[in-house]
Amino acid sequence: MSVQQKPEICAAVATESGWKTLGVFTPNQKESKIALMKAFCDRQPGKSDEMLKKEFDAGKLIGTSFPARIHFNSTTLLAALDPGSIQYPVPLSRANTLDREPPDGEEITAKARQVVSSMNSPPTLFYEFNKPALSEGKITTKMELGIAVSLRKAETARQFFEGCQIEYKEINPDDAFVAEETRRGYAVFHFSPERLPLKIMSSLVKQFGEPLAKDLSGGSPYFQKLRESPPLPARAVFLLEKFYGMKNAGGSIKCHRLS
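The structure corresponding to this sequence follows.
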């Protein structure tokens, strides 16, 4: 357990990238400090509440550990609606609405897709990484750019690259390099900064921020941000790839927002 004297008391666990705060126990009030001392330290006979508070303020609980079970509830919904199965009730209070036609099938389908696409959609991630390259017979590294978008937005990303005539490569979801992205329902695109117009690079930075550093250690800023989105059930990933998955492994990517 980690103790922050100001402004909160929190519990934390060690992760690959350092300590990560799980949650706050309670505000730093006198009663709370005394209660925590009684819960995590053996109270010696004769010690008053005031003495316990002083020991807490002196940092006695710093580094204290305790067994805990962490539960995380993640619910994912992927729904497909049959437009022909939807029935619209006829309003009885207004006579002028009796002849109103229900929306056609295409309108219903479009609305359903819009609702589903807004559910549990992970944020777009813009990053940079070093790619091995062969130069004059020597193995070197070359900086590349990547963008990870929700599979539901993969087609928008393809249209972006192709509309701006940017050469890109869509990474196969089975590639080990994007295993964590695939588990979270992402499509991943790589492209060279050398072939990216400055105006488009500025637009990407304005929209998504400076590229996050990605490396294979798993503790880079990119992976910290990526892991804020929980993995999806395997069935959900399968269906997302079926409906929105890659069309081409690469190609030559309309300048609208990818948010």
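The chain is about 30% helix and 20% strand.
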